[in-house]
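The instructor's notes for this session suggest beginning with a concrete chain rather than abstract definitions. Hand out the sequence below and ask the class to guess, before any prediction is shown, which regions might be ordered.
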Amino acid sequence: QVQLVESGGGLVLPGGSLTLSCVPSGYTVHFKPMGWYRQAPGKQREVVARVSSGGATTYADSVKGRFTISRDDAKNTLSLQMNSLEPEDTGVYYCYLWNGNDYWGQGTQVTVSS
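After discussion, reveal the predicted structure:
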């Protein structure tokens, strides 16, 4: 059973930055398709950014140029660097891993507000 542990959420002012991290317990991120999703209040969960097994990255249009997803095999960590945060980025952010089955983290809250 893979357990994904997220950290790094919090309250930030508009224009600020946060970095989210995801570490799989007892499992490796090496060559695994992974991603970050978010769910805002009253909305469906949506993809934010993904990294393929080969390392190719894709982003939602709303975060292109502001967010960067990275998978660090040495640290066994998936990260999401978020810059120029906007109130519309507020939500619960979930880490995702696929190895033939779907695995989700418990979520970390990101609130962008003045």
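Then share the key points. Residues 38 and 44 are 8 Å apart (CA to CA). The radius of gyration is 13 Å.
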